[in-house]
Amino acid sequence: MREATPVPNGVGQGAPVILLAGANGQLGQELLRSLQGEGHIVALDRHGLDLADFDQIRQVVRTLRPAVIVNAAAYTAVDRAEADSVLAQRINAQAPGVLAEEAARLRATLIHYSTDYVFDGTLARPYVETDAASPLNVYGRTKLAGEAAIAQVGGRHLIFRTSWVYGLRGANFLLTMLRLAQTRDEIRVVSDQCGAPTWTRTIAAATAHIVAQWPREAEALEAWWARYSGLYHLTAAGSTSWHGFASAIFSYLPAAKRPNVMPIATTEYPTPATRPANSCLSTEKIRQAFGFFAPDWEDALRCVMDEYADYGVRFGAAREDMR
């Protein structure tokens, strides 16, 4: 458990308490860095705040009395969720509602993250927030139910749908590809699904950018939330396929260590959970509301791979891989 000293409502420190759930996850670790300076952060992993334990959720929130709850925790094992739907439902669908209820009791703010997998991927354009959701898998259905639970409670909340999340921590496509490149000369990657690979730091930076805009005066804050509370799409700009993403990742490796990337159809790589063919999300609403311009996915990947090369000691033999 990673935790700052719990001081209810920042008493004695002059700062609001920010409760960060899922602090050890790939997004949680970036949020912990990006939200520094916005309040007194109490960062908890699943041992300190288990979203499957509703009594614990209520106890933690009522003890800390945070001004902001940032929920970066979720059941994210998309394929495993097909056989583990009860736990996925509890964590992804029901727990956000409990968090929303507790936030409403305190007149606190809830920030929650959702997914492109709430859509079936049949549209030929990027999805906007008002498009009808029709998830194809258990993960998507439970995340959509979590969105609905928060909206039903109401109160001050921001729900950010994102897509194809990756970074240099945790388990994600980028790290899987880099690992496979060490042992394989050829890798088969799906080429008929499109989306926007989104760096965890982009999501965390956007979150901090929006938090910093909140008015400090009570009357202005009420008006702000009346206008901006709700659902937003938050991804990198641009789009590619999984095959395109893999090819871009390997382009940063020396030619001698660069595997051949073979494009395949989704039907050639069956998985327990069905994925949408189109995971592209329009970010026009978040740009208009908050002035946040997300970087192009290729520009973000360049930054990630520079960091991978520069900090090889932290991330295995990265420096050696880049030679």
Automatic annotation (TrEMBL):
NCBIfam families: rmlD. It comes from Paraburkholderia silviterrae. PANTHER family: DTDP-4-DEHYDRORHAMNOSE REDUCTASE, METHIONINE ADENOSYLTRANSFERASE 2 SUBUNIT BETA. Catalyzes the reduction of dTDP-6-deoxy-L-lyxo-4-hexulose to yield dTDP-L-rhamnose. Its cofactor is Mg(2+). Transmembrane segments: none annotated. Belongs to the dTDP-4-dehydrorhamnose reductase family. This is dTDP-4-dehydrorhamnose reductase. Pathway: Carbohydrate biosynthesis; dTDP-L-rhamnose biosynthesis. One of its GO terms (cellular component) is cytosol. Residues 18-308 form the RmlD-like substrate binding domain. It catalyses: dTDP-beta-L-rhamnose + NADP(+) = dTDP-4-dehydro-beta-L-rhamnose + NADPH + H(+). Binds 1 Mg(2+) ion per monomer. GO terms for molecular function: dTDP-4-dehydrorhamnose reductase activity. SUPFAM superfamilies: NAD(P)-binding Rossmann-fold domains (SSF51735). Its EC number is 1.1.1.133. Pfam families: RmlD_sub_bind. Gene3D superfamilies: NAD(P)-binding Rossmann-like Domain, UDP-galactose 4-epimerase, domain 1.
